From TrEMBL:
InterPro entries: Fimb_usher, Fimbrial_membr_usher_CS, FimD_plug_dom, PapC-like_C, PapC-like_C_sf, PapC_N, PapC_N_sf. Transmembrane segments: none annotated. It is found in: Cell outer membrane. This is Outer membrane usher protein. The keyword Transport applies. It comes from the Bacteria. Belongs to the fimbrial export usher family. One of its GO terms (cellular component) is cell outer membrane. It holds the Pfam family Usher. NCBIfam families: PRK15193.1, PRK15198.1. It comes from Buttiauxella noackiae ATCC 51607.
Length: 855
């Protein structure tokens, strides 16, 4: 019998000084937690320490300190399962399907065969030394399995059962650039549209170009590609039907219209992923960058003076040589080719990589035919670090066979060598045959900071031709930029030149970077192609040095390019300097200070014609999310006199926008860039920043204006939807909502989700948001506070809570009017209903204090 006159604090002290000694369990009377005369709910479920109630919880699942997924999982009491569990008193209900997902070697434990799908497996009893730990506060489940019990798989491998093919959707991506000058206008619109249904992806890419000048105008629409694609999981491959490009492992990449099925590297662990192209260059002025592949314009943008890097080319340019044109404000052009070839073709032992293509040759050049061809390549990983590969190309006027081998040389890097034999009939009906020998080398000297990303050389005999060359209609010819591309010029602008009498002889490629530690870094990249029957060659080289000191960054870049059939060569040297204002002002850097996020710039360049340009300016970032970049420059050229520019680029929720103004002695012009995306899905239309190949739709109904972590400018719209672009395929993508951006009336049960999308998918990451009033409601029943510890549920929204001292209940996401179900035991006699009404001004208050009566 407890003396009710004893205060809770005194009772706790007495219990500590005179503990009850018995053969049974220690017992703490819950009445000590409540005030005098207050009733108590049934708290027996808490008698065994910190044990939680069994049920379904959404948890982050980790196996041997490796993240697996975030999913709803049923938990049962540990004493009911016979398992070992830490802290929470709960163990997960894992069936045999789940054990397979965790990578358990099922054949090593025959006792598992008697368990049906969906039936809980007593993990700790059947798998010695296994253990589970459920951290209820973090909703994290750690599963520890002996390494010997697991199947061997590459680190980071995610089983296909977890791959998400996404939801049905319609997608649209746009990029619009425009230039309005003193003498002419130019507009370029690029559109990528698509449909997703199940595993199928339908994609179309097209571009519109408009040019207007003094007395002329022209416009055209160019369909770049249309194709359907889907994953074939059993073969770990992709199927493409329509317009696409062949791979470039064995043969040079070609455009085609037909069918292709190939092994998809992205389905394998990161260690088996391949090489990707990066375009570098130097601009003397505010220049327009145009990149072509197979004569199609696949990329166009504007860059500031100095060295630039482009690494976000879309999937249509994932392989094959890239033709880069840098058009300066004074009309001069640089032209060079960025070669793209894979690093040495090594495969893991036992892995086969295949690629099959059948279709019509396709390019954007009117100088070439469209012969039907087939191509097959195979790459096999052999023991002792060897790889064997080969392939064939077959067409009416062309036959080629390639064989090669690669070797992992350990500390000496990796290399591959192959030989290709080809028989060709050219446009003049002359027949030729020859061979081409290729050598590729890659090495990373980590201890010295040196990275040979790619070194390669190809030697070809006089009679060797490629399928791309055989497709030409004429032995020799120039291809000119048409009016829709370059406007009407006094003289035609040469876009490319070919002469099949000059068969390829030797081609050298290099891409090397060297870290100098505290003294910066160096890089050299480029290529040179020589020809039989002529001393001319195609050459492009670029070298650069970059470093920094106390926040100051500076770089020196040099570039040289020369093309066969084009008389002039391009040689440019540039120096760039950037100094933060915080350094100029002599104080520490602060991310919250606008002046500290600004910097002063200096740029100087000189080309082969003696054109020298000097520019100074300021730039920086604005807005709370630092998603507005600006730049103001003033310069002088020895050919065009003074010049200046003002540019701003805003990365907003529904797209990106760039504006610029440039002037010099002879002209002034305005340019702009706008890009974005839109997604149509079962719940409506969501606008976004430019979409990637694979994207995530965030669904948090009612939670408007909530930011997404690590995504500049991405926020949920007025309905609570957003798109996170550029998801990583076949990998866990962590999607987290920024709770700091939520208003006072929005709460989210779990702000973190994880998805594993397949190629081209739009996967949905769903969050449950509670939007409404936050309130502390004091509830009484018969003039007394409702029992301490009672479970509370709001009937309309399903929001739950628990009664605290004096009948106080904290709830979030409440409607202005509703009803609370309060339950303190079993049966209808241990529950009551408390209707409540909150004033309209509650919507503008952080927390509302109210009262209600339960009956």
């Amino acid at each position: 019998m407890i003396n009710k006159s004893v205060t809770p604090l005194a009772a706790m002290i007495m219990a500590a000084l005179w503990p009850v000694i018995s053969s049974g369990e220690s017992y703490f009377n819950p009445g000590f937690l409540s005030v005098e005369d207050a009733a108590m709910a049934d708290l027996s479920r808490f008698e065994k320490g910190s044990h939680q109630a069994p049920g379904v919880y959404r948890v982050d699942i980790w196996r041997n300190v490796e993240f697996i997924s975030t999913q709803d999982l049923r938990f049962i009491a540990s004493d009911a399962s016979g398992g070992k569990a830490k802290s929470s008193g709960l163990v997960p209900c894992l069936d045999t399907d789940w054990l397979k997902r965790l990578g358990l070697n099922m054949l090593a434990y025959p006792a598992l065969a008697k368990f049906k799908s969906g039936e809980c497996v007593p993990l700790a009893l059947l798998i010695p030394d296994s253990e589970t730990n459920f951290d209820f506060a973090k909703l994290r489940l750690d599963i520890s399995l002996p390494q010997a019990s697991l199947l061997n798989s590459a680190r980071g491998y995610i089983p296909p059962q977890e791959w998400d093919e996404g939801i049905p959707a319609a997608l649209l991506n746009y990029s619009f650039t425009g230039n309005h000058g003193s003498d002419d206008d130019n507009y370029y619109l690029s559109l990528q549209s698509g449909l997703n249904y199940g595993a199928w992806r339908l994609r179309n890419s097209g571009a519109w170009n408009y040019t207007r000048g003094d007395g002329y105008h022209a416009n055209s629409w160019n369909n770049i590609s249309t194709y359907a694609q889907r994953t074939i999981i059993p073969l770990k491959s992709e199927l493409v039907l329509g317009d696409s490009n062949t791979g470039s492992d064995v043969f040079d990449s070609l455009g085609f219209r037909g069918a292709r099925i190939y092994s998809a590297d992205s389905m394998y662990p990161d260690s088996q992923q391949g090489y990707a192209p990066t375009v570098r260059g130097i601009a003397r002025t505010h220049a327009k960058i145009t990149i072509r592949q197979n004569s199609f314009v696949i990329y166009q943008s504007y860059v500031s003076p100095g060295a630039f890097t482009i690494s976000d080319l879309n999937s249509t340019s994932s392989s094959g040589d890239l033709e880069v044109t840098v058009e300066e404000k004074d009309g001069t052009q640089q032209k060079y080719t960025v070669p793209y070839s894979t690093v040495p073709l090594l495969q893991r032992e036992g892995r086969l990589k295949f690629d099959l293509v059948a279709g019509d040759f396709r390019s954007g050049s009117n100088q070439q035919d469209t012969p039907f061809f087939t191509q097959a390549t195979l790459n096999a990983g052999l023991p002792y670090g060897f790889t064997a590969y080969g392939g064939t190309q077959l067409a009416e006027d062309y036959t080629s066979v390639a064989l090669g081998a690669g070797k992992n040389l350990g500390e000496w890097g990796a290399l591959s060598m192959d030989i290709t034999h080809a028989r060709s009939r050219l446009a003049d009906d002359s027949e030729h045959q020859g061979q081409s020998l290729r050598f590729l080398y890659a090495k990373s000297l980590s201890g010295y900071g040196t990275n040979f990303q790619l070194l390669g050389y190809r030697y070809s005999t006089r009679g060797f031709y490629t399928l791309d060359e055989v497709a030409y209609k004429n032995i020799e010819g120039y291809e000119y930029a048409d009016e829709t591309d370059g406007g009407r010029k006094d003289e035609p602008v040469v876009q490319s030149y070919h002469n099949l009498r000059y068969s390829k002889r030797g081609r050298f490629q290099i891409n090397v970077s060297q870290s100098l530690g505290d003294y910066g870094s160096l890089y050299v990249s480029g290529s040179q192609q020589t020809y039989w029957e002529t001393s001319q060659n195609n050459t492009w080289y670029q070298a650069g040095y970059a470093s920094g000191w106390r926040g100051i960054s500076y770089s020196l870049s040099m570039s040289w390019s020369k093309s066969v059939g084009i008389a002039d060569s391009d040689r440019i040297m540039a120096f760039n300097l950037s100094v933060p204002f915080s350094t100029l002002l002599g104080h520490g850097y602060s991310r919250t200070s606008t002046i500290d996020r600004a910097y002063a710039t200096f740029a100087a360049s000189n080309n082969a014609n003696g054109d020298a340009t000097v520019q100074t300016g300021i730039g920086g970032t604005l807005l709370e999310d630092r998603n507005l970049n600006y730049s103001v420059t003033q310069g002088h050229s020895n050919t065009n006199g003074y010049s200046g520019s003002v540019t701003a680029n805003w990365q907003a929720t529904y797209g990106t926008l760039g504006l610029g103004y440039n002037y010099d002695r002879d002209q002034h012009d305005y340019n702009w860039q706008a890009s974005g995306g839109a997604v149509g899905h079962a719940d409506g239309i969501t606008f976004s920043q430019p979409l990637g190949d694979t994207n995530v739709l965030i669904k948090a109904p009612g939670a408007s204006g909530v930011g997404v972590e690590n995504q500049t400018g991405v926020k949920t719209d007025w309905r609570g939807y957003a798109v996170m672009p550029y998801a990583t395929v076949y990998r866990h993508n962590r999607i987290a909502l920024d709770t700091n951006t939520m208003d006072n009336h929005t709460d989210i049960e779990n702000n973190v989700s994880s998805v594993v999308p397949t190629e081209g998918a739009l996967v949905r990451a769903e969050f449950k948001a509670h939007v409404g009033v936050r309130a502390i409601i004091t509830v009484t029943r018969g003039g007394r506070a409702v029992p301490f510890g009672s479970v509370v549920r709001e009937e309309t929204t399903g929001i739950t809570s628990m009664v605290g001292d004096d009948g106080q209940i904290y709830l979030s996401g409440l409607p202005l009017q509703g009803k609370l179900l309060i339950q303190w035991g079993e049966g209808k006699g241990s529950q009551c209903f408390a209707p409540f009404t909150l004033p309209p001004e509650s919507l503008t208050q952080a927390i509302v204090v109210a009262s209600a009566t339960c009956s």
